[in-house]
Amino acid sequence: MTARRAPLDGIRVLDLSRILAGPWCTQNLADLGADVIKVERPGAGDDTRGWGPPYMKDADGEDTTEAAYYLSTNRNKRSIEIDMATPEGAQVLRELACHCDVVVENFKVGGLARYGLDYASLNALNPALVYCSITGFGQDGPYATRPGYDFMIQGMGGLMSITGERDGLPGAGPQKAGVAVTDIVTGMYASVAILAALTERGRSGLGQHLDISLLDCHVALLANQNSNFFTSGVAPQRAGNAHQNVVPYQVFAASDGHLIVATGNDSQYRAYCRAIGAPELAEDERFIDNRRRVINRDVLVGLLTDIMKQGRRDDWLARLEAVGVPCGPINDISQVFDDPQVKARGLRVDMPHPAGTTAPVTASPLRFSETPVEYRHAPPRLGEHTAQVLAEVLGMDDAERRRRLGS
After folding, report:
1. What CATH number should be reported for the domain holding residue 126?
2. Does residue 338 have an active-site annotation?
3. 74 and 199 in one domain?
4. N or C terminus of the chain: which is more exposed, having fewer CB within 10 Å?
């Protein structure tokens, strides 16, 4: 059978982004086969290279200079060191953009115009270019010129108002998510937008400017919570580990730990009641359907809490799994990667690294039956591919590179 090309084989991306949202987007594209050229500041590189410890270990178990944070979002890319603040560096990047299909950047609004690397400048040189700008607040509006960071957007965008324990209970108060979800979801939306723009370019031959903002993506992420507000006029509040619209759908304490019970419909609720030895709760008129369970949440949860704390966690899990009630333990990340399902799905990948060791990365969740994601090379060292890329794309030999860029 003839080997099939990766979905984005033949697409070249000039990646001017750093930190997380932009690199998350370009890692998705790289995983799908795009040639992603990561442009980094000479001598320093992406800020996340220094965001450690922890660092990747070398063959002797000693720390390298490769921060775990950087490794998480830069595999399958090629790194070049070019100083865009110099006229010659900016000129080389403009030349590269003429040979690229996509540019991704996450500078402040207007920040790249001084280097001739903004959308208008590059569109004039390459009208087929798909140019994706990722900013905190978008290209217009009263906040457009402000810097935006994940943590502050989680607060401004409403997520922290609905995350954390309920007011009046111990530990109550706004809480951010344990991972930079705003950056991650923005990177995902940017990936989708780029793929759509490439599809449109295939019809019209023209590129376009994509305006993707952290705040926009974060507000969209709130999904049904926004709809709860739209339909009721009441802003949702923190509910701890409970669901705003479904009961019971929360954490329960067993005698030796905690577990999650997530009954998504009435039949699952009835199966749950039978499994815990309380079939009468399935027939109680106060709890007969989800609407009434939500209205009578406090009463029902109080009864279930008393029952659940009498049994052992793993016993409850076995009983509930046997009757098809969605449930699960609360794992730490070490336990996640020891889980048999996670192992079976191959969600950890160890990639050979030029430091003589392997770089552990999380596998892409994208699964294709015919053109699977390939793990071509580990997150690159700073400037690892400068000579290679400039020779391959621009035909620049070592002497010309040294003359023009001083390296």
Report:
1. 3.40.50.10540
2. no
3. yes
4. N
